[in-house]
Write a structure and sequence with these properties.
The longest helix has 18 residues. The protein is 33% helix and 22% strand. The protein is of the alpha+beta class. The two termini are 31 Å apart. It is globular.
Length: 235
């Protein structure tokens, strides 16, 4: 299924690209992946980029995500930096949607990762957390306790009574737990296998910061452990 919601023509894009120092447009093709945004591969005289039009993210939250990616890239984390236009802005409207341009990372997700790739993903996550401790902006995690309860209700019909009780007890424990001692900062929030691109065994780029927020670093770790450290049968 095509995941482009907002159509962009070469003429539309060429005019918008005049804000950037990336040269004239040479090529444009839609990217089928992604459910939240419209994405295009863009080739210009000076390089290859990914154009993202944000379909659902509120524009007032965009600076948190884009400045975070820029901060992490500056600090040496494996995160592709958003391009700033001639005014220094990291996004502006294109066909009625806020849009940004990011250098294209050459790499592929490892959907059946090797032990080396898992270790590399863990190291990249650690470097990202160290860098994000120095990021000042704050954004409440929309995947917090309220969302946990809502998601638990949605999966309840598929659970055994024992699983249902385990989930309910865990949510009670997590909500009541004094987490103040745990280290906190800007987290990725969505570090599944498809959001880490590899060039061989090396992490080429961590992408898709649409779920980033301020929360406990353990949240990222929990997502990563569940996806990267389990087999297809859940073991």
């Amino acid at each position: 299924s095509m995941s482009v919601y907002t159509t962009v023509s070469a003429d539309d894009l060429d005019a918008w690209l005049a804000r950037y120092n990336v040269g004239r447009l040479a090529g444009l093709s839609p990217i089928a992946a992604g459910i939240e945004n419209s994405n295009y591969h863009v080739t210009t005289e000076f390089g290859q980029f990914v154009l993202t039009l944000y379909e659902r993210l509120p524009a007032e939250e965009l600076p948190f995500y884009l400045n975070l990616a820029a901060h992490l890239a500056r600090e040496g984390a494996a995160v592709p930096a958003p391009e700033s236009d001639r005014t220094g802005a990291l996004f502006s409207n294109l066909n009625g949607k806020p849009a940004s341009l990011v250098k294209r990372v050459t790499g592929q997700p490892a959907m059946t990762p090797t032990a080396e790739q898992r270790a590399a993903a863990g190291e990249a996550l650690a470097r990202m957390h160290v860098a994000s401790m120095r990021y000042r902006a704050r954004l409440t995690n929309r995947r917090g306790p309220g969302w946990w309860r809502q998601a638990a209700r949605a999966v309840r019909p598929f659970l055994t009574p024992a699983q249902d009780e385990l989930l309910a007890a865990e949510i009670r424990f997590q909500v009541g737990y004094g987490k103040d001692k745990l280290p906190k900062g800007a987290i990725h929030g969505d570090l599944f296998r498809d959001n880490v691109l590899f060039d061989g065994e090396r992490v080429a780029g961590i992408i898709d910061f649409g779920f980033a927020a301020t929360d406990y670093f353990a949240y990222d770790l929990a997502v990563a452990v569940n996806d990267w450290c389990s087999d297809a049968d859940g073991a």
